[in-house]
Design a protein that fits this description.
CATH class: Mainly Beta
Distance between the termini: 39 Å
Shape: elongated
Strand order of the largest sheet: 1-2-3-4-5-8-9-12
Number of helices: 1
CATH topology: Porin
Number of domains: 1
Largest sheet: 8 strands, antiparallel, barrel
């Protein structure tokens, strides 16, 4: 895992230093749906042509637990070519983690419990703005470090695909 983190860091530094042109985010606002291990709504507000704030409201659920998160990210955008751009950023999230009541194979009963979730988040991704349409497609990875609930670093849990309406 340490090598993956080093590779991501080298990639971010290389891309940001070799491409000094400013990304031109095509719109002031973008709202849409984010799909992946955690599904939800995403909203991006462009502060400058190369800088944006993003909020993600996500829900993740399976047979054992459910998780709700409100994520805030500060993002830097850089052009790749034509209508493609790449971005990276950082932020944090707050939410709740709820373990569902269940009985395991040995017959042990586990009660439902909830706890607060708090994390530091990062994001790296690419965006394609469809020419002459108010639609943008985004593929990203959003690793995070949980402080309270199962303290640990998660990389692949945050892979997502977004479809956004831009205006």
């Amino acid at each position: 895992m340490k090598k993956i983190l080093q590779l991501i860091l080298v990639l971010v530094i290389t891309l940001s230093s070799t491409n000094l042109a400013k990304a031109q985010l095509p719109s002031q606002h973008a709202i849409g749906a984010r799909f992946g291990s955690a599904t939800g709504l995403a909203y991006r507000y462009t502060m400058r042509p190369d800088l944006a704030l993003e909020g993600i409201l996500s829900i993740q659920s399976n047979s054992e637990y459910s998780r709700f998160r409100l994520v805030g990210l500060y993002e830097y955008h850089k052009p790749l070519f034509n209508d493609f751009s790449w971005f990276w950023g950082f932020g944090g999230s707050v939410g709740s983690f709820t373990s569902k009541a269940f009985t395991n194979k040995e017959g042990q009963r586990f009660d439902k419990y909830s706890e607060m979730a708090l994390s530091i988040d990062g994001i790296v991704g690419a965006e394609y703005k469809i020419p002459e349409a108010p639609i943008a497609l985004t593929l990203d990875i959003k690793p995070y470090f949980d402080f309270l609930q199962e303290s640990g670093f998660r990389i692949w849990d945050g892979v997502g695909f977004s479809i956004r309406y831009t205006f």
